[in-house]
Design brief:
The protein is α+β, with helices and mostly antiparallel strands. It is built from five helices and eight strands; from the N terminus they run ααβαββαβββββα. The protein has a six-stranded antiparallel β-sheet with strand order 1-8-2-3-6-7, sandwiched between helices. A two-stranded antiparallel sheet has the order 4-5. Helix 1 packs across helix 2. The relative contact order is 0.19.
Length: 187
């Protein structure tokens, strides 16, 4: 932890660094990933900006689709969470995913991809279909905690609805995102 904090606060210091009581800011996290020899890939999510129930449901599906390929590839992914009423954000590390053998929903079966101006409809079943949520390491509560959408029976501090950013520490020789690789494979 001290090495991560030192790398993160090498160029941008927003307060006392050791002990770091206020946590790290997102630009500091990017620098820590970069200084560890990885290429930081930041992605932002807008679930909290959606007001329509269907838009929120689709935003949750989008989160699963974007997180899944990195976790499945063995790349621990940093998830930055902030509840609607929380003043500070919190980061957890996605290290695995849950499994659900339930039938696929229509949202995962058909996708339309545009390649070089031509629109092609491809029927496929995304692997994220069987992933209702992820397993995360949360330094507040421990390893292998379930990270799922907030439900009636889920009483947790953070859930998928609280996801604001995702930070993927890509190996230096990976030059495209998972979404780009998926589009190339389908094409």
């Amino acid at each position: 932890p001290a090495q991560i904090t030192n790398a993160a606060t090498r160029f941008l210091i927003t307060g006392r660094t050791n002990p770091g009581r206020d946590g790290l800011h997102f630009p500091q996290m990017l620098e820590a990933v970069r200084s560890a020899g990885h290429i930081p890939l930041p992605l932002q999510f807008d679930y909290h900006e959606k007001t329509d129930a269907e838009d929120r449901r689709l935003a949750l599906l989008d989160m699963r689709r974007k997180i899944y390929p990195y976790v499945e590839s063995g790349i621990p992914t940093i998830l930055v969470l902030q509840g609607e009423e929380a003043k500070n954000a919190h980061a957890v590390l996605a290290v695995g995913h849950a499994w659900n053998a339930a039938p696929a929903t229509k949202d995962f079966v058909r996708s339309i991809y545009s390649a070089r101006g031509n629109q092609t409809t491809v029927s496929l079943l995304l692997a994220a279909t069987w992933t209702p949520g992820f397993l995360v390491h949360n330094d507040n509560t421990g390893p292998y905690q379930q990270f799922l959408p907030r439900g009636d029976d889920l009483d947790v501090e953070y859930a998928m609805e609280d996801l604001r950013f995702m930070l993927v520490p890509l190996p230096p020789d990976v030059l495209i995102t998972a979404q780009e690789a998926e589009a190339f494979a389908i094409q």
